[in-house]
Amino acid sequence: MSTNIPIEKKVLSENDRLAAKIRTELTDRRIVALNLVSSPGSGKTSLLERTLETMRDRLQMALIAGDVQTENDAARLTRAGGTIVRPLITGGACHLDARMVSGVLDELDLSRVDVLFIENVGNLVCPSSYDLGEDMKVVLISTTEGDDKPLKYPSMFRRSSVMVLNKIDLLGTSNFDPERVKANALQINGNLKILEVSCTRGDGLDEWYEWLAGMVKAKKKR
Amino acid sequence: MSTNIPIEKKVLSENDRLAAKIRTELTDRRIVALNLVSSPGSGKTSLLERTLETMRDRLQMALIAGDVQTENDAARLTRAGGTIVRPLITGGACHLDARMVSGVLDELDLSRVDVLFIENVGNLVCPSSYDLGEDMKVVLISTTEGDDKPLKYPSMFRRSSVMVLNKIDLLGTSNFDPERVKANALQINGNLKILEVSCTRGDGLDEWYEWLAGMVKAKKKR
């Protein structure tokens, strides 16, 4: 498939140019932008549901919910209340790109937004290659997936700044070892900040909320 | 990214040509070829481990274990014993393609093989576009992932012939509804054969083994 490589490079450099433009605009507005990435079913939508509900009085949030098909996630998140939520259906594509995000941002009123969440397509490979203009990628991994995933899908863990280990309420139901997944993740990226949560039971979410609030505070000061 | 489309089509048609060649060779040899696809962590490797252990006296099996990085899966499966197991590391690519598979097949002694398993990269999107010359795709989904996945990632369910619902031992730990996931899957593809299993506890695996043995028997007769 060597014929594909020059075109791929061109597409990626166009994407990077547009992502840089998005980043400048969001930074000018002092908006924290987080690109949430994971396998399908690790709990991105659940984490966002809890966050929108809990933080709505403290932060102005906007959310772009990416999916290959269906607006299910956007509908779940709109029910969580109060926040600007827009679906972004890729229609088959395996990742979001900066052009898709830019198209949605053009239609949003960003004037009072503190945090923009971009929920990527559930895919632990392809979204790692596409900068969306975010401040950082937040990768989720759940305790039902297997503790060697950071080694098997290293690019995503290398390019993320935060790893949220979700479904800690299900520890003990399989041979998943939380210490091993953390060691594997840190072997790939020693700078990863790691949070351990259960989005169904609520464990660890306070630390996530405080981290988020701290990010917003820091960005306002810049 | 319209510039990418003609090249993408060319790559896919080259892939299809090579996949057809693989299919002819495997069919001439009366080998059943199954392409196992799923999200990361749905249990492809666990299902294969159990199958290699249990069926080794009844079937001659070969296995190509695809991964983005690491030979972990191939190592786990080699320990399961007795079978020809080859790792296939994509080095970053998000799917296997027919050229990669062809390269591995050229080095295998297929003379006595009944079943070839191809364990794809953990990715519920991209592998759906790449024919590997298999008889059919077997898609795994686990009860910890979310019962709307067939609607959100329809292409994979449309192009698969069998859906294995894994981790049924974990039903009840979340709001995952097995009836809903089956209805969603059948809405996308009414011809899907659905098997419900727990690879850790063993539930439902006998039906999988019998189905597999039946496939081998049917192919020998052709």
Oligomer: homodimer
Helix percentage range of chain A: 40-55%
Distance between the termini of chain A: 45 Å
For the record, the CATH class of chain A is: Alpha Beta
Work out the largest interface and the residue count of each chain: A-B, 44 and 44 residues
Q: What best-fitting shape of chain A do the alpha-carbon axes yield?
A: globular
List keywords for this structure.
222 residues; alpha/beta; Rossmann fold; 8 helices; 7 strands; globular
Write structural notes for this entry.
2 copies of one chain form a homodimer. Chain A has 222 residues and is α/β, with parallel strands linked by helices. The first copy, chain A, has 8 helices and 7 strands, in the order αβαβαβαββααβαβα. In chain A, strands 3-2-4-1-5-6-7 form a 7-stranded parallel sheet, sandwiched between helices. The model of chain A has no long low-confidence stretch (mean pLDDT 93). Chains A and B meet through helix 1 and helix 5 of A and helix 1 and helix 5 of B.
Question: What's the structural blueprint in terms of helices and strands?
Answer:
Two copies of one chain form a homodimer.
Chain A: H1 4-28, E1 32-37, H2 44-55, E2 61-67, H3 72-79, E3 84-89, H4 98-105, E4 115-119, E5 136-142, H5 149-152, H6 154-158, E6 160-166, H7 178-188, E7 193-196, H8 205-221
